[in-house]
């Protein structure tokens, strides 16, 4: 599932192509492409100018010159690709948003004139939503992510330290801290030398602070690498894979030696997912 670094890579890529361009047409091709709670069909965005592309955690939205916004969540396998209209449709195309030519391209063919929403597993969606306190309706309950100016590290530490749950589900809880998914949770816990099953209230504030800072650091590195790709399901807007998978220390490395102590990395079941950790470094 795309996590914060992958969504930020997509956001930044879209921003290069779509700012100040108007939407000339919009079509959806699958019943699940549009979120059921969307206040309008996708065609409502036709004629709107894209003012900004924004993100919180794993949510992305297009700020328009309208009273509503267009929100995108990539789900498990969603992609937002910039494509020429002349190119054949990709498999699993769920929606298409055509853009007017950018200023200065009059009379020329634009190489990047539509946004295509591709989603093999159909867990992602697009949605037309109202804005509340500068975020869309579906994002209102999502906590700040570590890269936002309003992220309050002290408040998050206090929240986590009072919990009786294991630490990993706490940092995966998007209402506590947003953007962290399974990959970067495992990597952050390894960097901070914290076992994924240790109870939150058994950790010191300094340990929780170190964990959050580790999560921010690993995600920052992943953004620089274009995110993490293991298969064809995550791509940036140009269709390229991210290469942070080469830098992973524990995730997906069960049975391989820890780069810190050479102990074999273990994999354990965790809430219908997997946790990867070093049994020696992380106690």
From TrEMBL:
One of its GO terms (molecular function) is damaged DNA binding. Its EC number is 3.2.2.23, 4.2.99.18. It holds the Pfam family H2TH. Keywords: DNA damage, DNA repair, DNA-binding, Glycosidase, Hydrolase, Lyase, Metal-binding, Multifunctional enzyme, Zinc, Zinc-finger. It catalyses: 2'-deoxyribonucleotide-(2'-deoxyribose 5'-phosphate)-2'-deoxyribonucleotide-DNA = a 3'-end 2'-deoxyribonucleotide-(2,3-dehydro-2,3-deoxyribose 5'-phosphate)-DNA + a 5'-end 5'-phospho-2'-deoxyribonucleoside-DNA + H(+); Hydrolysis of DNA containing ring-opened 7-methylguanine residues, releasing 2,6-diamino-4-hydroxy-5-(N-methyl)formamidopyrimidine. Signal peptide: none annotated. One of its GO terms (biological process) is base-excision repair. The active site is at 2 (schiff-base intermediate with dna), 3 (proton donor), 58 (proton donor), 273 (proton donor). InterPro entries: DNA_glyclase_Znf_dom_DNA_BS, FPG_cat, FPG_Glyclase, FPG_N, H2TH_FPG, Ribosomal_uS13-like_H2TH, Znf_DNA_glyclase/AP_lyase, Znf_FPG/IleRS. Binds 1 zinc ion per subunit. Residues 2-124 form the Formamidopyrimidine-DNA glycosylase catalytic domain. The keyword Cell wall biogenesis/degradation does not apply. Transmembrane segments: none annotated. Residues 249-283 form the FPG-type domain. Its cofactor is Zn(2+). DNA binds at residues 92, 121, 163. Monomer. Involved in base excision repair of DNA damaged by oxidation or by mutagenic agents. Acts as DNA glycosylase that recognizes and removes damaged bases. Has a preference for oxidized purines, such as 7,8-dihydro-8-oxoguanine (8-oxoG). Has AP (apurinic/apyrimidinic) lyase activity and introduces nicks in the DNA strand. Cleaves the DNA backbone by beta-delta elimination to generate a single-strand break at the site of the removed base with both 3'- and 5'-phosphates. Belongs to the FPG family. NCBIfam families: fpg, PRK01103.1. This is Formamidopyrimidine-DNA glycosylase. It comes from Candidatus Nanopelagicus abundans. The gene is mutM.
